[in-house]
DNA sequence: ATGTGAG
DNA sequence: ACTCACATA
């Protein structure tokens, strides 16, 4: 999974326009720190992505909501020349490419990247010479810069899954463990490993009770067994770190472990299995039928519905059940 | 309390 | 879209 989101893609006759608009949007956000222009370009891209027919001129596009004279002009230029002067310049610009590079380091976002570039730190090499400017998370991102961009083969995740299940079962057999994300959707490779755990003693209703030890204990075991080698962050419910798999030539991986209250487990699994687009569509369907669906609860008229399986959620909102592999 | 970053 | 963790002030 990459850090940047690329939304509008398939069966979109205006895909090429959307592409350059999104590139411009990212430039405005990451380099100029102008969130308004960013939103304007994103809006325009979404409008064009939803438009059923091929746009033939800027004039035609300008009739659409969110597209004004400036974007219309760019569409004309793109139609006539196949490219944009402005984008060509941006792609050549030193600071702009440096910011795009630095932003690929986990923990470095647009703000930090800009700060670094302003201090004339523009490459991974420069970063290594200026570790003092980085926080804990960013240091790990730098250390494993290459590793974290490598995809994780399905078989490796499977081995890690089995390992975690075995070790945790030994710790406390009442834990339930599910590996979600694209792995659960059956993909041959994934960007990271997303593990959801729950325990019968942890319920969203017993509120104030601190249950963080349930997550910490798991992390401790996996640390002692050398699966977890570094911790990026460790909160009460969410935990991210890197793990090394000895048999895989020591590539560091991102492992994300979340503790979910038992009564919200299936909603969590649904949410973290994705895909993003699938979730979006399913939530939209829920809304149309008077439900609200999020990561934690399914509600009818504000009242939470009791869920005891993933199928339950589909049943309640009248959405045809889809196997994880059909949610791509 | 606020900004940042991740997912 | 929304929430969480962390680092500052």
UniProtKB/TrEMBL annotation:
Reactions this protein catalyses: a 5'-end 2'-deoxyribose-2'-deoxyribonucleotide-DNA = (2E,4S)-4-hydroxypenten-2-al-5-phosphate + a 5'-end 5'-phospho-2'-deoxyribonucleoside-DNA + H(+); 2'-deoxyribonucleotide-(2'-deoxyribose 5'-phosphate)-2'-deoxyribonucleotide-DNA = a 3'-end 2'-deoxyribonucleotide-(2,3-dehydro-2,3-deoxyribose 5'-phosphate)-DNA + a 5'-end 5'-phospho-2'-deoxyribonucleoside-DNA + H(+); DNA(n) + a 2'-deoxyribonucleoside 5'-triphosphate = DNA(n+1) + diphosphate
PROSITE patterns from the UniProt entry: DNA_POLYMERASE_X
Swiss-Prot/TrEMBL cofactor(s): Mg(2+)
Domain (DNA-directed DNA polymerase X) ranges: 12-328
Subcellular location: Cytoplasm; Nucleus
Family the UniProt entry places it in: Belongs to the DNA polymerase type-X family.
General function of this protein: Repair polymerase that plays a key role in base-excision repair. During this process, the damaged base is excised by specific DNA glycosylases, the DNA backbone is nicked at the abasic site by an apurinic/apyrimidic (AP) endonuclease, and POLB removes 5'-deoxyribose-phosphate from the preincised AP site acting as a 5'-deoxyribose-phosphate lyase (5'-dRP lyase); through its DNA polymerase activity, it adds one nucleotide to the 3' end of the arising single-nucleotide gap.
The name this protein goes by in its record: DNA polymerase
Source species: Diploptera punctata (Pacific beetle cockroach)
């Amino acid at each position: 999974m990459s850090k940047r989101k690329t939304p509008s893609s398939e069966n979109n006759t205006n895909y090429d326009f959307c592409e350059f608009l999104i590139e411009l949007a990212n430039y405005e956000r990451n380099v100029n720190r102008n969130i308004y222009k960013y939103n304007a370009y994103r809006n325009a891209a979404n409008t064009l992505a939803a438009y059923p027919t091929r746009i033939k001129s800027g004039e035609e596009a300008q009739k659409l909501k969110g597209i004004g004279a400036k974007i219309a002009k760019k569409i004309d230029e793109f139609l006539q020349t196949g490219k944009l002067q402005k984008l060509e310049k941006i792609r050549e610009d030193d600071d702009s490419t440096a910011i795009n590079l630095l932003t690929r380091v986990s923990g470095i976002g647009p703000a930090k990247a800009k700060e670094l570039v302003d201090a004339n730190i523009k490459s991974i090499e420069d970063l290594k010479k200026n570790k003092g400017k980085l926080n804990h998370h960013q240091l790990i991102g730098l250390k494993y810069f290459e590793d974290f961009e490598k995809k994780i083969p399905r078989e490796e995740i499977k081995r890690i899954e089995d390992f975690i299940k075995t070790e945790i079962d030994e710790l406390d057999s009442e834990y339930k463990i599910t590996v979600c994300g694209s792995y659960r959707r059956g993909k041959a490779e994934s960007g990271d490993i997303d593990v959801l755990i729950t325990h019968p003693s942890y319920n969203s209703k017993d509120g104030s009770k601190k249950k963080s030890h349930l997550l910490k204990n798991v992390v401790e075991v996996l640390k002692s067994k050398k699966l977890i080698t570094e911790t990026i962050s460790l909160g009460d419910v969410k935990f991210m770190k890197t793990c090394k798999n000895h048999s895989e030539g020591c590539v560091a991986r991102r492992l994300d472990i979340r503790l979910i209250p038992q009564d919200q487990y299936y909603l969590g699994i649904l949410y973290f299995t994705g895909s993003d687009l699938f979730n979006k569509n399913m939530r939209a369907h829920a809304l149309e039928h008077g439900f609200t669906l999020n990561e934690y609860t399914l509600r009818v008229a504000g009242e939470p519905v009791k869920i005891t399986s993933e199928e339950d959620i589909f049943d309640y909102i009248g959405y045809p059940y889809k196997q994880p592999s059909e949610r791509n």
